[in-house]
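Re: weekly structure request thread

Next one in the queue (261 aa):
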Amino acid sequence: MDLSLASRHALVCGASAGIGRAVALELASLGASVTVLARRADRLDALLPDLRAAGASAAHALAVDLDDRGAATAAVTAHIAAHGPVHVLVNNAGGPPGGPLLAADEAAFLTAFGRHVLASHALTRTVLPGMQAAGFGRIVNIISTSVREPIAGLGVSNTIRGAMASWSKTLSGELPPGVTVNNVLPGFTDTERLHALAEGRAARQGVDPGAVWDAWRDMVPEGRVGEPHEVAAMIAFLCSPAAAYVRGQSIAVDGGRLRSI
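Done, posted below.
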C-alpha cells in the first residue's frame, strides 16, 4: 500500500493544537513537506522541530487568522510562490461556541460560516491550480459527526458542519481527476475544544465536568474518548496515494458512537 507523500507539499490548517497538530505530524511521517497554519505563531514555531524529527522533508509556519480570508489567501499565495505548489490541503478551524440554536444571533452564524465554509473555499481555489498541474491533490475537511446526527447544545456548529459537508460533496463532482475531497468526522476526541465544551455543558447543567465526560464515554461502544492521533491516521490515509479512489465521502472516526448507517 502506497502511503508515501515524499515530494508532496501539505498545508494543514488549525495545526497549533489538537487534531490539526496530530495531522501535521502524521503527514510529516509520510515524508511530506508540511506547512502549518494557525493564529498562534508561538505554537507553530514550537511544532516545526517536531515535524522535522517526524520525517518532514521541510517544515514551515504561517501565522494567519482564517477569519481574515483576504490575508490568509494572500499569505498562502505568497508561500506557494516561495516554496512550490500545495498538493494536500487539510481544512480545519476552531468550532463555534456551544449553546442552543435559538440562543444564537445572526453574527454567530456569519462568523462560523466565514471561518469554515468561506475560508475552505478560498483556500481550495488558491491551491487547486497546483494540484491540477501535478495531477495529484487531496483535500480533507475535518468536520464533525453532527453531519450525520446533530449534537444537542451545539446549534451553530451543527448548522455549519452540515454546510461544509454539502459544499464538499458538491465540490467532489467538480474537481478534476486525480484531485479528491473527503470529510473526516471526529467523534468525542480529547482536545482543548472538547474540554472547553465539557466545562460549558457542566456549567449549564450545574454538574461537575467529570460527569459530562462520563456521560460521553457511556455513549461510545469503544468505551473511551478518542485521541487526536487516531483521527489523524484516517486523515493521513485519505491524503495518501492509496486513497486515490475515495472521493466525496464523510467518514466517521468515533469509536462506534453514531447509530445511523
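The longest strand covers residues 179-186. The beta strands are 9-13, 33-38, 58-63, 88-91, 137-142, 179-186, 250-253.
Next request, please.
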